[in-house]
Structure formats: C-alpha cells, structure tokens
Specification:
Strand order of the largest sheet of chain A: 1-2
Strand content of chain A: under 5%
Low-confidence stretches of chain B: 1-44
Shape of chain A: globular
Subcellular location (chain A): Cell membrane
Main location (chain A): membrane
Radius of gyration of chain A: 21 Å
Number of strands of chain B: 15
Distance between the termini of chain B: 10 Å
InterPro entries (chain A): ABC_transp_permease, LivM-like
CATH topology of chain A: ABC transporter involved in vitamin B12 uptake, BtuC
CATH architecture of chain A: Orthogonal Bundle
Keywords (chain A): Cell membrane, Membrane, Transmembrane, Transmembrane helix
Membrane topology (chain A): Multi-pass membrane protein
Oligomer: heterodimer
Mean pLDDT of chain A: 86
Order of helices and strands of chain A: HHHHHHHHHHHHHHHHEEHH
Number of strands of chain A: 2
CATH topology of the largest domain in chain B: Rossmann fold
C-alpha cells in the first residue's frame, strides 16, 4: 500500500487534459485546473453542500424534483459504494458480482457492534470497514485465482453463502429474515445527535447532521479515490485492465495488484455499508442478497464505468427512479392536467430497464459519457474560435 | 424533531404569517364537522410538535405501503382497495363509519379531510422502508399502514418508531412483530403464529384423533421458524401428538418433491406445511400430486386467498387458519362485504378486512383523543375494547399492542365446490378465551415497547 502515498503528480494521466491547450483565456485556465485534485475535491464539496437544498428544499426546483432529505443522504452513501465498485470494474477491469457481501457484511458488522459494544458512529464505521477489508482480503484471495466469468461467479457464490448464513444459521446474531432491528446509533463525538437538524444556514443547505457526516466521508472518499487513481499504483490498475499479460511481462505482480484493488474496493463498500446502518438504524437481510450486487453493477454501468463521477450519477438516477418516479401516480404533460399515463409509477422497473438499455446502446460510456462529449464539443468550439 | 423543520420551510413562512388565522379556521371546521370531541382550536396548540404532528393545512395524509409488485402483489392490491374504501368512508360516510364506529362522523377526522398516498413495498424490507420514509418525509404522512410480510412490517414499524409516526400493521403473522421486535408506535390486529397453533390444535385433535405422529416442513426464515416451533408446541401439548421431524426448506423453493417423499416415508400420519404465499401454493399442490393426501392428513397453518386460489382443489379437507372471511356470519362482516362488493364488484379477502379495520381503528382513536398527537392516540388504542369489526369482542392489549381476538379455523373445499371468493368452509371460530398468552409469557415476554415521545 505504500505506493498509495506517493505524490500523485501524474496529472497528464487524464487523457483529455493533455490535448487541452494552455491558453491565457478563461477556458484554458479551467481546463488546466479541472484535473487538479484540489479542484475536484472542492467542486465535490460544493456539490455535496448544495445538493440536499436543491433536492429537497429549494423553491421550484425541489417541487419539480420531489426529493426529500433521507434520499439525498442515501444517494451519497450508495455513491461511496459505487466509487469503490468502479475502482474494480471501471479501472481494474474486474467484474465482481458479489459486492453485496462487503456492503451487507459491513452493515451487519457495524449494526452488531452498535448493539453489543458501542453505538458511536465513528466506531461503527471503523468496525464495519475493518470487517469489509478482512472479508475482501479473504474472498479476494479465494476468488482472484480465476479470471473473467469464473471470478464473477465465485464472488457471487461467496456473497450468496453470506446471505444464507445471515438468513438462517446465524439468525441468532442477525435476526434472520426480519433484519437487524434495535440498532441504537449514538451521538457523534458524544454530543451531536445525528438525526437533529443543523442550526441556521448549515441546516438550510445540508439539513441533518447525519447528512453532514455522510457528506464529509463522501468528499474524503472522492479525494482518496482520486489520489489512488492518479498515482502510479492506479496506473498499474489501468494497465491490468488494458492488458494483463503485458503488465505481467513488465514485471508487475499482477495478482497482488488485483487483490489490492479488490480490498480497496471492498473497503469503500464497507464504509458505505456501515453508513447505511447508521442512516437506517436497521439492516435488512436483502443488503446481502445478490440483487444488491446487481444493483451496484447496473448503477455503475448506467453512470459510466471507468469515470470518477459517472457511477455517482448512475446511483442518483437509479435511486431517483426507484424511490420517486415509482410514486408518481399519473404522468401529466408539464403545467397541464392532461394525463399521459395513469399509474405511471407502477412501471418504474420498465422505465429503468428502458433507460439502461438506451444508455448502453447510445452511450456505452454511460451518462457521464454524455457530459464528456459535450465538453469535448465545447472545447473544440473554443479552440476553433482562437 | 428533525422532520418538522425540514420539509416545511417553504410552507412554514405561510404558516408563521397566518398561524392565528389558520388555527382559528381549523377550529371552526373541527367544531362544526366533528362530534365535538375535537373541541375546536385545541388541536395543534396543546401539544409540542412530534413526528409529523402538527398537521399543516386541513388535510391529514395516510401512507398505505403495500406490495404492488412481487409474489404478494395480488394481496397488496386487495389491501389497497380496502384502504381506499376506508378513506372514502371517513370523508363521505358509509360502511362501518355509519354503522359500527360511533366515534366517526363520516365528515373527516377531527375536522381534517383525509387524503392518502400509496407506495410499493415489493415484499422487500429495504424497499418498504425507503417507500415509507418518502411518505413520512416528503408527503408528511401522519400514519402508515400496510405490510404483507412480517419482515416488511417489522422493518417499517422500526422506522415509524424512530420517526414518531404511527404504524397500523396489516397482514403480519410472525410472533416477533408484537414479540421481541415490538414497538410503541405500532398496533397489530392480525393474530400470530402462536395463536394459530393454539386455535388449530383442538380442532385437528377432534378431527383426526389423539396419539398421532406429525412431520413438518417449514420455510427457512424467521416466520417459518416461529411458525413450526408454535405448531410443535401446541400439537404436542394440546393434541397430544408426537413430532417425527421438522425439516427446513429454503425460502422460494419451487420443487418440494424430495422433501415430500421423505415426509411420505417417515411413517407420520400428519404433514404440516408451514409455507406461505406462492411457496404454500406450490408445496400443497405437489403434496397432493404425489398422493400424500391419500395416506396422510395435511395441515396448512396460515391460509390466504391468493394461495387457495393458486392451489385450487388441492386444499380439499386441509385445515388452516385465516385472518377473516366474508362467510363469517355477523353484522360487521356482512356490512363490510357489501360495501366492498358494491364498490369493487368482488368479494373482499381477509387482508382487506384487516386493512379497512386498522384504518378506521386509527381514525376512531384520533377522534377519541381529539388530536393527531401520536402519544395521545396511542393511549387511546392501548387496552381499548371493541366489538365492531366482525371478529367478536376484542381488546388491543397495552403491554404488547397485540389484539386479543378470535381466530377462524377453516377447512378447504373440494375443487368442484369452490367458486370465486369461496375456497373453504369455516369449521370453528376459536374464542379469544382459549387463545393468547399473558403479558409476561410467550412472545410478549420479550417485548419492550419503547418510548411514547
């Protein structure tokens, strides 16, 4: 892991920024700044700060979006999960179909710790994440013996084993099908009640302390992921994705790098899973089910595997359709009362399927790919003017 | 509480500017429309804000969280019909509002018009919670009702306890709902696995005799486990039978033939199938196809109509219990069946009756309390005695929020005698005096309800 700490000065790792011209005009400046870690983290922080307000409380916008606070929190939690998953799928080229094991495993671990030892949110996150790391090390060690589809199947099998363990033999610990109830989340630093609103302007923007807590970890996760990906270590991940054999011939211990990618990815899933427990004060058994592993694959691909923020966008779209579009009673033409489709929300699965197929078909690099294309278009235009 | 300031801010301004006016207005409608219990503007000012209380405007929103997709979709559909009917009756009168519930006026509840939102649980605890939290935070629902699976009900009632929003459980049969996972903010009308065992044991003892051996299959999750444990307890203690073996089958099994052939060769006289929903329909159908019903008696502890529909003639002479049935002969049952039929042109199912009853029960408690303030409503429901929903005289016990009520025991009809809405005959309605357990015994011993506020 030591390489991780190496200074990530490989800014030209971003292919589009290398061809962007270094001009004195504003656009050139922006192109220059865009790839910098500070810019990325800063913009993420700004986004995190205004998102719940725009989503749940802003006039007009939130009325249109129909969002609510707890969904904003949930989107960030899944966002952390997706960033970690994308490290593995998008950057290292390994399709794990068993990430529910880390997400759900960490959720259970932190929930059980909260019930039996300490409900301190930080203790919960740390213990859940540690559990996920150890589990990822073990499962990675076993699954990475095989590549391609066999790897996916192995991860799926291990995750399903966990599911059945939690459903029945370990029911005394996990409360089985009913899910882990009675999780008491304590106060942050012993004083801050997470469900409480933040006073004054902070409360208007962020809402609850819980969101602030999750948002802080989200920004940190983005910073860490960005650093890893732009370090030499991350370059090796991409090299493995492009051609495993060549990477091996260069003298890299491919297996070890793959295992580390798997563990890092598991750690992100673990952080997210622990936050999920804190968010709900409950762990559903479904958090270990294979559909959860499927969801994260769909979210990541929908948003754009292999990009930093694509998966987060994918999470947002997916959860939005699942939780908000599904409650729309009738689809009307905006600003009129003309009903296009009755019981529109009922078809949300279908809608999600159509969106997914359309995205994979039209923009294989995901929704984030659209943004990339728009940017290229604009930068060509700007370049042309000069 | 967290909920109050967040979703409101935009409307809060409105409210702050015209708080006096609004309160006065609410008072007028309350006094005029209600039965006087509301006592005018008292509502809203006497109690601190808690959960989604106080309600803004003059419309109170209920959240109906039912399975609209997945294996229990047809049950959920019927529940939703009953909920819609209940809301209609609360606002416009009709059904039990006119005849059975003296507390209700048929002109809203304590001066508020009732509206509702519905959501899809997909029989998935996680999605059900998401759906419920949307109802609570975005739609400001004052009460949530629904469920068709115990895992869902337990997950949602836990959320409701945290959010301080009331939950009126619909179909949930696990001992845990009002046992170790019970909460202050939830009330259950439906009986549980424990009571099913108690109700069935004397009936099957009389039908099949004493000293028999029985073999159990059960769905391998918490409902199945508590169900088989309760059956074992009462078949042994009450009927004097002996268990040969109890075998777990994975949830969602489609092929039961290996399990069934083992049961067949075990030498037992009775086969108890602790399966529900599609699993139940599959296992009983396959048991009959394998000819097990010729040399063994079959018991399905918990029936429901979609299950009976799917199993068809296979349920002939099979004993079980169910929530309620339209054939039950008393005034409330008949009135509900009529009202439901005239609205939807179909016979209501057991879960539909529970859904309808729970909604009106909540509304009546609000009327008695004179406010939507949850702790007051809870106190009105705790240890409340009633005899108006067609299941004899009942009490909603205060120590575990479990209704103490009669349990109908039914026997499946042969395929030739079945028709839509009629799949079984009622053989006994086991009185509540022969059922249940004390507050410090059985599942209730593990129940800690939590706080009012």
């Amino acid at each position: 892991m030591s390489e991780e700490d190496a200074n990530p000065n490989a800014k030209d790792a971003n292919p589009s920024s290398s061809e962007a011209l270094v001009g004195s005009d504003l656009f050139g400046r922006w192109e220059q700044l865009r790839g910098r870690e500070g810019t990325v983290v800063g913009l993420t922080a700004i986004f995190v700060a205004v998102f719940p307000w725009l989503f749940a409380r802003a006039p007009v916008v939130s009325d249109f979006l129909q969002g609510y606070q707890s969904l904003a929190t949930l989107i960030l939690i899944w966002g952390i999960f997706a960033i970690g998953f994308d490290l593995l799928l998008g950057y290292t080229g390994l399709l794990s179909f068993g990430h529910a094991a880390f997400w759900g495993g960490a959720a259970y671990a932190s929930g059980i710790v909260a019930k039996n030892i300490s409900g301190d949110p930080i203790v919960m996150v740390v213990s859940g994440t540690l559990f996920a790391i150890l589990l990822a090390w073990l499962l990675g060690f076993l699954s990475l013996r095989r590549g391609g589809i066999y790897f996916s199947i192995l991860t799926l099998a291990f995750a399903q084993m966990m599911y059945f363990m939690a459903a029945s033999p370990l029911a005394f610990l996990t409360n089985g099908e009913n899910g882990l109830t009675g999780v008491d989340v304590g106060n942050l630093f012993g004083v801050i009640h997470l469900e409480a609103d933040i006073p004054s302007i902070g409360g208007m923007l962020l809402g609850t302390w819980l969101y602030a807590f999750v948002g802080f970890i989200f920004v940190a996760a983005v910073a860490v992921a960005y650093r890893i990906l732009n370090s030499p270590y991350g370059m090796v991940f991409r090299a493995i994705r492009e051609n495993e054999q060549r990477a091996e011939f260069v003298g890299l211990n491919v297996w070890r790098y793959k295992l580390m990618a798997f563990i890092i990815s598991g750690a992100f899933a673990g952080i997210a899973g622990s936050l999920f427990t804190i968010h709900g004060a409950y762990v559903p058994l479904q958090s270990l089910f294979w559909t959860e592993s499927g969801d994260i694959v769909v979210m990541t691909v929908l948003g754009g595997a292999g990009s930093m923020f694509g998966p987060v966008l994918g999470v947002g779209v997916y959860l939005y359709i699942e939780n908000i579009v599904s409650t729309v009673q009738a689809l009307t033409i905006p600003f009129t009362d003309i009903v296009l489709i009755k019981d529109f929300g009922f078809y949300w699965h279908l809608l999600l399927g159509i969106v997914f197929v359309a995205v994979v078909w039209v923009v294989p690099d995901g929704l984030w790919g659209i943004i990339g294309r728009v940017r290229t278009f604009v930068s060509d235009r700007m370049g042309g003017e000069r | 509480m967290a909920r109050d300031t967040k979703p409101l801010n935009r409307r809060d301004v409105l409210k702050a500017t015209g708080v006096a006016g609004l309160a006065g207005l609410a008072g007028c409608t309350g006094g005029g429309g209600g039965d006087g219990d509301g006592n005018g503007g008292g509502d809203g000012e006497d109690y601190p804000s808690l959960g989604n209380y106080p309600i803004e405007g003059d419309t109170a929103t209920f959240g109906f969280n039912v399975p609209q997709s997945g294996p229990y979709a047809s049950e959920g559909e019927d529940e939703l019909r009953a909920y819609q009917l209940a809301v209609k009756h609360l606002n416009e009168g009709g059904g039990w509002v006119d005849s059975q519930f003296d507390d209700l006026s048929g002109d809203g509840v304590v001066g508020y018009t009732i509206d509702y939102v519905d959501g899809d649980t997909a029989t998935d605890a996680d999605q059900a919670r998401q759906s419920a939290s949307g109802m609570i935070q975005r739609d400001n629902a004052i009460m949530i009702s629904g469920g068709s699976s115990s895992a869902v009900a337990i997950a949602v009632q836990g959320l409701c306890q945290n959010e301080k929003v009331m939950f009126m459980a619909c179909l949930t049969h696990s001992n845990d709902t009002t046992g170790k996972d019970c909460v202050r903010y939830s009330f259950r009308e439906m009986f549980n696995a424990y009571m099913t065992g108690q109700a069935l044991a004397p009936v099957v003892k009389e039908a099949y005799g004493e000293g028999l051996k029985f073999y159990q299959l059960y769905a391998d999750y918490s409902w199945g486990q508590t169900q088989q444990a309760s059956m074992n307890q009462f078949m042994t203690d009450v009927a004097g039978w002996e268990q040969v073996e109890s075998v777990a089958t994975p949830l969602g099994t489609t092929d039961y033939s290996t399990y069934l052939s083992e049961a067949q060769s075990s030498g037992a006289d009775v086969l108890i199938l602790n399966h529900y929903g599609l699993d139940g329909a599959n296992s009983i159908q396959q048991a009959v196809d394998a000819g097990i019903n010729e040399d063994m008696e079959i018991i399905v502890p918990l029936y429901n109509r979609p299950m009976a529909e799917a199993a068809g003639g296979a349920i002939e002479n099979v004993y079980g219990t169910l929530a309620w049935d339209s054939q039950i002969d008393n005034a409330p049952s008949k009135e509900f069946t009529e009202a439901f039929q005239s609205e939807y042109d179909r016979v209501p199912s057991g879960p539909a009756q529970v859904a309808y009853a729970q909604t009106l029960q909540y509304a009546a408690a609000v009327e008695r309390a004179g406010t939507f303030y949850p702790p007051e409503v809870i106190k009105q429901l705790e240890d409340y005695e009633y005899d108006n929903i067609g299941m004899g005289s009942e009490v909603m016990r205060g120590c575990d929020h479990q209704a103490q009520r009669d349990v109908p025991v039914v026997k499946g009809l042969p395929g030739s005698e079945q028709e839509s809405g009629k799949y079984y005959e009622i053989v006994n309605i086991t009185s509540r005096d022969d059922l249940g357990y004390a507050c410090d015994a059985g599942p209730a011993a593990e129940c800690e309800l939590g706080s009012y506020e």
